[in-house]
Amino acid sequence: MPSAIHSQPIQQRIDWLMELSRTHSAQFCDPENYLARQRYLAEHPTHIIALKCMDGRLHLPYATQTPLGIIRPFRNLGGIFDLGWPYMGDLLESSVLEAINAGRRVLIIITYHYSKGDRSRGCAGFDCDHHAAMEHAQDIRLQVEAIFGHDHQTVYPLVCGFETDEDALILHGAEDVQLDLSTLSDVDIPTLIPRLQSLLPDMPSQMRHDLLPLVEGNIRHIAEIRQSHREPDIEHREWMICVGRGFDFLHVPNVALIIGPYSPDLSDPITKAAGIIRANMEKGRIPDDGFLLLSSAPFQEAGPDHARAELKANFMAEFAAEVIRKTQPELAQKMLIRTATLHWPTRRLDVVD
Questions:
Q1: How does pLDDT run across 84-106, given as a tens digit for each residue?
Q2: Which segments within 150-260 are labelled E, that is strand?
């Protein structure tokens, strides 16, 4: 991403965004990447779901060096979920049962994030409170167990911290035991199997085998981050609000505030997101010439599925725009609205309006 994108006029930022989505789809559909995914799934059949924050720094495929499309993300403001939410519960159950019917086990990675270098770089959804975010992740783990069972032989909930300064994963085992991958290096890779067996003794061997590449990839990634001497991106400069699903291409820090359609009350996170955008303009972090409200809904097939995705995207855009008009009337005058659908098999984003 060009470092100056946040300071460009709003239309140039939107053009950059659309190009980013096209590049992501092209990479996803590339024959080499497609074959890499198929080969990977043949060797590692566990279906992996990740519940995570909207923060673009949490790019799990990048941080674990796994092919695009292996990890299925659910993203929401603050990584805040409740499996009692009807739509959220239905989507998760559908994803789990689809995998189980295909003979695959399911690993649900429940993430929280923080910065070891500066508390203010933590999760805004929890007011940068590391422990509150971690406790929420543990609560979700209990909900997963309540739905899918406590023996963990088919569905395994794994709480996983993400330290954003080095993109390091922290795996949580039983009885508050943790494995911080930032403390390991290449020389420790031969010891990973016994380490994971000790940390996660109730995890099926096949699932542990399928978790191993993510762990190894993260150790290598951390080493690369340290060698690059990457500076942490501290300042919030978000200039768009995304409502819905289909924003996998937006793994870019401090660009978007993503609100999944999971909570029965979307007005609260939309109001908070609008407040962040307004503050960014007032403090000169982004130009005040406009911000983007983008809604998206995925679909699998042409026909009714596609038509319904358009209706959902339009509804979410109208709903979010009305909330912003009521709560931030001055900001609403600078709002540009786009609705889109996402063709899930190709990850192609098509702007409807």
A1: 998 898 999 999 999 999 999 99
A2: 155-163, 168-172, 178-180, 240-244, 256-259
